[in-house]
């Protein structure tokens, strides 16, 4: 089932033969992690690229004042890794932690490089996926600088309705770049306007 979800994900980006799909998913190993468990700790080298088949993970860093800053969440059908650490095999600046019991498919750095050599279509597939991911990341940065906190909140709910059930108010506020108290104010204001 897990590999079927990954095959489906790959097929959304590129028209692939069944043989190509089988070759692409073959190196991925299933890993289950419990809520609260770390997949990666800041300072360690990210030796995997992961595809989430169930659950939800929080990718975060810690500010100089000790406050956690949520960078993004990864739910079902999402990729998770510390890209700089994975690509350059250097210490991670991020923590990756399960906020719900989760199952992932993982591929190592060496396996990914071998996949590029063994399956010619792999480089094109991952290039297309990376371009889409970078475009989405850019949209998020632009929205962070141009939308109000309330607009960012509403956009998050509309875009990621399945993630919201796993996320605490504190985590969501951190992701939105606001305090938990201000998130409560926004929710009350939206609730009153809907009456």
Automatic annotation (TrEMBL):
PROSITE patterns: CNMP_BINDING_3. One of its GO terms (molecular function) is DNA-binding transcription factor activity. Residues 15-115 form the Cyclic nucleotide-binding domain. It holds the Pfam family cNMP_binding. One of its GO terms (cellular component) is cytosol. InterPro entries: cNMP-bd_dom (IPR000595), cNMP-bd_dom_sf (IPR018490), Env_Response_Regulators (IPR050397), RmlC-like_jellyroll (IPR014710). This is CRP-like cAMP-binding protein. It comes from Marinoscillum furvescens DSM 4134.
């Amino acid at each position: 089932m897990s590999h079927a979800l990954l095959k489906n994900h790959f097929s959304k980006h590129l028209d692939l033969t069944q043989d190509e799909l089988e070759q692409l998913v073959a190196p991925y190993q299933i890993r289950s992690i419990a809520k609260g468990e770390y997949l990666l700790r800041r300072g360690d080298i990210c030796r995997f690229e992961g595809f989430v088949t169930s659950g939800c993970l929080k990718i975060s860093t810690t500010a100089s004042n000790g406050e956690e800053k949520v960078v993004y969440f990864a739910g079902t059908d999402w990729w998770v890794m510390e890209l700089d650490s994975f690509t350059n095999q250097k210490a991670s600046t991020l923590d990756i932690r399960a906020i719900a019991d989760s199952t992932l498919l993982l591929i190592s750095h060496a396996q990914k490089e071998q996949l590029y050599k063994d399956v010619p279509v792999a480089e094109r597939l991952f290039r297309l996926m990376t371009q889409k991911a970078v475009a989405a990341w850019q949209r998020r940065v632009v929205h962070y600088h141009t939308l109000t906190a309330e607009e960012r909140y509403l956009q998050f709910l509309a875009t990621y309705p399945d993630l919201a059930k796993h996320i605490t108010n504190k985590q969501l506020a951190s992701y939105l770049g606001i305090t938990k108290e201000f998130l409560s104010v926004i929710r009350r204001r939206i609730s009153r306007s809907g009456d």
